[in-house]
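anyone seen this seq b4? input:
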Amino acid sequence: MIINNPSKEQIPSLRALWKEAFGDTDEFLDSFFGTAFSPDRSVCIEEDNNILSALYIFDCLFEEKRIAYIYAVATKKTARGRGLCRKLMNFTHNLLKGKGYMGAILVPSDKGLFEMYEKLGYKTCCFTEEFEVLAQGCPVEINEIDKVEFAKLRREFLPEKPVIQEGENLDFLESFAKFYTGKDFLLASFEAEGTLIATEFLGNKEKASSIVCTLGFNKGKFRTQGMSRPFGMYYDFSEGTHPTPEYFGLAFD
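predicted toks r here
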């Protein structure tokens, strides 16, 4: 058994594992492996030339210190129950600490995963609010912007103690989402089955219905800052000498 960074030649095996675990489309995987994948920011477990488990890392900043967003942790179905996820995560934590990262953040998709990552040392630190609206109200002034302008404005709209996500985070997000701003709001969104999905909305929530209307949708689903839903979990490599993030907004679920 080998735990190491995968090579680009192993991308077909990584894609196969990802599709088995998450069921994402080839288009989505093309976006990820074309914009965000790097062997240096990936870790896998290999046995007999077969990839059994893998994860991916996005570089982020928190209080000017580098932290890792650990993404798409997966283990092959036939290899589950062998403790591979724990081995993969422990190896990754040691690797990240050795490279000077201050911590790692991830977004569990369900209660069972929250409990699993808690056993690995993660603590829930970030919460969000999610809500749905129908299109109504007068059109609102809204402008489409590029990722450079979005990154600049996002720093102005973020709440206290946020994780800064730029670089490959926005390269990947741009591959399937669009960025918009108005007088008192900022959002990254995409369309899914005729619905506007705001993967992150910052600013005046009262504008949500008008935004949906202005962009030509009948309804929208918004994720924003709030306290109603446990969202991100954080593993502190600094043993309490560095603050904990309180907001993490761009999860690529």
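The chain has a mean pLDDT of 96. The longest strand covers residues 50-62. kinda curious what u guys think
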